[in-house]
Every structure is written in structure tokens, then in C-alpha cells.
Specification:
single chain, 17-stranded parallel beta sheet, Leucine-rich repeat, LRR (right-handed beta-alpha superhelix), alpha/beta, two-stranded parallel sheet, elongated
């Protein structure tokens, strides 16, 4: 009786696993079949099938035997096409086709209506079928490193999307109805051909990360303040010469990266940016230190390398949490007194500046672990003094 009951329970669990869609956690706990020979022995029990890195030239024709398939990994093969029958897996939730040589997707890709994750990076896709807009359960769309010149308007129908990654494509514009993606949190548009941030992006109220690095963007307009939940603004290697002060209204910002741009000034007040931890303004054309950044007690990393800053204001006592500071390759001639109040500072780069002498106050940077003083032309006597200031009570790596 007990054996029969146990056998019945096992059958019931198998039937439930086959009959219903599993959660992420449940999918991770399923047996992962990595061999077709093994999978063919129990086709109805195959829920997770991993055929990645098998040197496949074509999708095996007998995959349609696995009626309960919910997770299929065909990544890292040599596939050039996806057969239409692959779109008939009604229960499929995760489809990984990355690292192949796909040039197109089947027109019926939209029939995979239970798909939650579609991974297509590192292929040769130039266009996506309009039917992709039927994947209304999709939460992640991964398309980085392809050859896309545009996205279909139907993308705006994917209202459950949380992440879109189209890094390293050839996009110049974005679908207008992208503003319908009210749940979108992460948008990667780096290494494309944008010359501005599309207006419809400013309507994405849930957006937390915007990466449009390595484009040709020239300014950041006041509309940036509409992204009230934004935490990470990544815009390095553009042509940005102007940033609106409205940036200061984004109270949830954690990181700003505007390195390798054309900024001559950065007069954004940090007073309300209490969550801000990292600012990267390396390789710009700043002549003045961003003096409006008065209160920044939670700031941990400040990068100002390779600008044209000559003078530092006496405001460093307001950066009590600063850990990492780079000021190298600026024509700075002296350090203000408040500079030596940075008692949490661990990394300091002053190489290539115009400092002729460093005060004994350096020894008050009690947490310092790395100090770069390269290309300052310091004499051996000056170097010995600095070693005495800094290295007498703690181990500090000093570069001359």
C-alpha cells in the first residue's frame, strides 16, 4: 500500500512538472539533459535541454519529440538558421541561441507565447520579425553584438520586458512606442550610432540603468530628470559638451559615467544626490573643479583624470566617505588643507600633475593603500621625505 502510494505521488509530481510552467527556481532544480541519446530515453520527462557547445551546424530535427520542453540552450554552436518547428514548443520559457551565426529568425518566433527569456547575442542578425511583439511574457531580450539597424515597432508590445540589451549594433533610432514598456529597468544601447538620447526613452518611468556609451551624443537635456528611478547613467565615449542641471533632480543616482567626452564644465549640485557613490569625469576638458558638488558624503569614487584643472577648492571635508580619487594628468599645483581630511581614502593618483612639493599632511591619510606620484620629477630627497610621511606607520604602495 505504501509503495503504491509512493509510486502514485512520483507519477503525480512528474505529471505536474509536465503539465504546468515552472518558475525560475523550479527550472534550475530540474534535471539538465546534455545528451540527445539520454534525452530520447525519456522524452516526456525532458524539461531542460542543454545542447550548447556541441558544434552543431543545424538544429537536430527530432527535438519536436520533447513536448514538455521549457528550457532550451543551443548556444555556442555553428547554427545559421532556426527551423520553423522550433516555434511550436508551447511551453518553452527560455531559449538561448547566442554565439552562433544566425542571420534571421523565423517569422513565427512570436508563437512562443510563454517565452520569458530570449538570448541572441553574438550572431549576425540584421532584422527582427514583427511577430516578436507577440512574446508578451518576455522579460529579457538579449541582442548585443549583432548587425541590427532598426528594431520593429512591435517591440513596444512587450510590456513585461525588464531588460533590453542591444549593445554593439548599428542603431540610429529607437521605436517610438518603446515608451509603452512601463516595467523596463535596464536598457543597454552602447556602441550604436545615436547622436542624441531618443525622447521616448525619457518616458520609461521604471528605468534604473541607462547605458548609451560609445555613441555620438552631444548633450544631456533637461528631460533626463523624468527618469526619476534612474540609478546608473553610463554615457562614456560620446561627444557630450553639455549636461543639464536637471541631472541633479535624479535623487536615486548611484553612478554617473561621463568619461571621454567634451565637457568644459560640470556644475551639477550633489546636495540632493544622497545615493551617489561613483562619478567618472576622466578625459574631458574641465578647467574648473566641479565646485557645486559641495555635499557628497556618500561619494566613494571620484575620477577626474586627464582634464585641465589647475586649482582644487577647499571642499574635501565634505567627501567623508571617499575611497578612490584620481586627479592625474591635471596641471594642479597645490593641495588644499581639507584634502587631508579624507581619512577613508585608500587610492590616490596624483601622477602627471604640476605638484612640486607634497606636505607632511599626507601622513594624515590614514587609510591610504596606494599612492601614485609618477612623473612629478621628485628628487630622491623628496621621495625619501614622502616615504617617511606616508610609509612610517602603515604599508602603502607608492609609485614615483
Amino acid at each position: 500500500m505504501i509503495r503504491s502510494l509512493l509510486f502514485y505521488c512520483i507519477l503525480l509530481l512528474c505529471w505536474q512538472a509536465q503539465a504546468q510552467l515552472l518558475s525560475d527556481a523550479e527550472l534550475r532544480s530540474q534535471k539538465r539533459y546534455t545528451s540527445l541519446i539520454e534525452a530520447h530515453k525519456h522524452p516526456d520527462e525532458v524539461i531542460v535541454l542543454d545542447l550548447s557547445s556541441k558544434d552543431l551546424k543545424d538544429v537536430p530535427p527530432d527535438l519536436d519529440l520533447f513536448k514538455n520542453l521549457q528550457y532550451l540552450d543551443l548556444s555556442k554552436n555553428d547554427l545559421i538558421r532556426v527551423p520553423n518547428y522550433l516555434t511550436k514548443f508551447e511551453k518553452l520559457q527560455v531559449l538561448k541561441l547566442n554565439d552562433n551565426a544566425l542571420e534571421e529568425l523565423p517569422d513565427d518566433i512570436g508563437d512562443l507565447t510563454n517565452l520569458r527569456e530570449l538570448t541572441l547575442h553574438k550572431n549576425k542578425l540584421e532584422i527582427l520579425p514583427e511577430s516578436i511583439g507577440n512574446l508578451n511574457k518576455l522579460t529579457k531580450l538579449d541582442l548585443f553584438v549583432n548587425r541590427l539597424t532598426k528594431l520593429p515597432e512591435s517591440i513596444g508590445e512587450l510590456t513585461n520586458l525588464l531588460v533590453i540589451d542591444v549593445y554593439l549594433n548599428q542603431l540610429k533610432s529607437f521605436p517610438k512606442n518603446i515608451k509603452n514598456l512601463s516595467k523596463l529597468e535596464v536598457l543597454y544601447l552602447g556602441s550604436n550610432r545615436f547622436n542624441k538620447i531618443p525622447n521616448q526613452i525619457f518616458e520609461l518611468k521604471s528605468l534604473q540603468r541607462l547605458d548609451m556609451s560609445q555613441n555620438k551624443i552631444k548633450s544631456v537635456s533637461s528631460d533626463i530628470s523624468k527618469l526619476e528611478n534612474l540609478k546608473y547613467l553610463i554615457l562614456f565615449e560620446n561627444k557630450i559638451g553639455y549636461v543639464s542641471q536637471s541631472l541633479a533632480k535624479l535623487e536615486n543616482l548611484v553612478e554617473i559615467d561621463l568619461s571621454n567626452n567634451r565637457l568644459r564644465k560640470f556644475d551639477i549640485s550633489f546636495d540632493k544626490l544622497e545615493a551617489l557613490e561613483r562619478i567618472n569625469l576622466d578625459y574631458n576638458r574641465l578647467k574648473l573643479y566641479p565646485e557645486n558638488s559641495v555635499q557628497a558624503n556618500n561619494l566613494k569614487e571620484l575620477k577626474l583624470s586627464s582634464n585641465k584643472i589647475r586649482e582644487l577648492p577647499n571642499v574635501f571635508n565634505n567627501y567623508s566617505g571617499l575611497i578612490h580619487l584620481t586627479l592625474d594628468e591635471n596641471p594642479i599645483t597645490h593641495l588644499p588643507e581639507s584634502f587631508f581630511k579624507l581619512d577613508k581614502l585608500e587610492w590616490l593618483d596624483l601622477s602627471g600633475t604640476s605638484l612640486y612639493e607634497l606636505p607632511a599632511y599626507l601622513g594624515e591619510l590614514y587609510s591610504l593603500k596606494y599612492l601614485n606620484l609618477g612623473d612629478l620629477g621628485l628628487t630622491p630627497e623628496q621621495q625619501d621625505k614622502i616615504k617617511a610621511f606616508v610609509g612610517s606607520s602603515k604599508k602603502v604602495e607608492i609609485v614615483f
